[in-house]
Amino acid sequence: MDERARPSGDDPRPLSVEERLRRLDRIVAALDADDVELEQSLALFEEGIRHVRAAERLLSSAELRVEELIEGEARRRKEAG
Q: Are 5 and 30 within 8 A, CB to CB?
C-alpha cells in the first residue's frame, strides 16, 4: 500500500489543526488515486471525517478563546475609565 494511502495510527497525543490539514491533504491525494480499493477508500474517508470534525472543534475553541480575550480586554478598559 502506498504511504499516502495509509491511515494514520492511533497516536496518543492530540493533533494540531495544521497536522490534521496535512493528513487531510494526503487522504485526498490517496482517494484521487486510481489504485485504492473500496474498503481502503471508505477507511480513509472515515478518517478524513474524523479529522474535519476534530479540526472544527479546535477552531471553534480557539475562536471562543479569542472572543473571551477581546471581551475581557474591553471590560478591563471600561473599568479603568
A: yes
